[in-house]
From TrEMBL:
GO terms for molecular function: precorrin-6A synthase (deacetylating) activity. It comes from Mycobacterium heckeshornense. InterPro entries: 4pyrrol_Mease (IPR000878), 4pyrrol_Methylase_sf (IPR035996), 4pyrrole_Mease_sub1 (IPR014777), 4pyrrole_Mease_sub2 (IPR014776), CobF (IPR012797). The gene is cobF. This is Precorrin-6A synthase (Deacetylating). Transmembrane segments: none annotated. NCBIfam families: CobF. Pathway: Cofactor biosynthesis; adenosylcobalamin biosynthesis. The keyword Nucleotide-binding does not apply. Pfam families: TP_methylase. One of its GO terms (biological process) is cobalamin biosynthetic process. Keywords: Cobalamin biosynthesis, Methyltransferase, S-adenosyl-L-methionine, Transferase.
């Protein structure tokens, strides 16, 4: 058996109330929490993780270890830049686990939303586990997709129809057919969709700063873009996602 164990805990989209019972039990099984330090603009993301631990952990004694997040190259090709960034993160994580987590202890990474969905935690941890003596498990969480549809009070799919989960980059490249959830979109790529496309957008889901807008792209597209830019400037970061659905023919 590996001498060190890591929980990857999905902590939901922003509301501490989204945590599952399984996640709370994993929190209480952990001695060391690892968190990426992404700079002053994103300090509140670390602060929320600390708030979750303070709220749900029954016995004190755990500690946080904040890890410097390696920069991602901006002038390289996208996939190469992401691979290099993940490799750099893996080196940081491996070093931290070896020095901060004693044999027999349990550590954890708290994954925003759910670790299965556009999150690099599992890929990076798999690389670490391939080179070091650790084991790990995964506790699923409430995704931004679930939070978005719940807050807008809509089903994710049309009757009997599929839903694509994609990125802004892919939406711009391939357009929209049917329904799609779009994540990782800094460019408001919904503007490439026909004007009568329906959109349900949300940012900072589950937090006090939550923003919601819905309508057709013609009706609310530019309002979303302006609101998104204003919110990002105010907070220094933004997490948003949206569902778009092509108009029926």
């Amino acid at each position: 058996m590996a001498s060190r164990h890591i929980h990857v805990i999905g902590i939901g989209a922003g509301d501490p109330g989204y945590l599952t019972v399984q996640a709370i039990e994993a929190l209480n099984d952990t001695q060391v929490f690892f968190a990426m330090d992404k700079g002053e603009a994103k300090r509140d993301l670390v602060a929320l993780r600390r708030e979750i631990c303070a709220r749900f952990i029954r016995e004190p004694g755990y500690r946080f270890v904040e890890l410097p997040d390696p920069p991602r190259a901006k002038d390289a090709r996208y996939r190469e830049a992401v691979c290099d960034w993940h490799a750099a993160r893996a080196r940081v994580w491996a070093s931290a686990i070896a020095t901060e987590l004693a044999p027999g202890e349990v550590g954890a990474f708290l994954a925003w939303g759910d670790p299965s969905l556009y999150d690099s935690t599992l890929r990076i941890l798999a690389a670490v586990a391939a080179e070091t003596d650790i084991s790990y498990d995964v506790i699923p969480g409430i995704t931004a997709v679930q939070a978005l549809t719940a807050r807008h009070r809509i089903p994710l799919n049309d009757v009997g129809e599929p839903v694509l989960i994609t990125t802004g980059r892919q939406l711009r490249a391939h357009g929209l057919s049917g329904s799609a959830v779009v994540m990782l979109d800094a460019d408001c790529s919904f503007r490439v969709c026909p004007p009568d496309t329906r959109i349900w957008w949300g940012a900072y889901l589950g937090t006090d700063d939550e923003l919601l807008l819905s309508g057709t792209v013609a009706e609310v597209g530019e309002r979303i873009a302006a609101l998104r830019a204003k919110a990002r400037a105010r907070h220094g970061w933004i997490m948003d996602t949206y569902l778009v659905r092509a108009a029926a023919e």
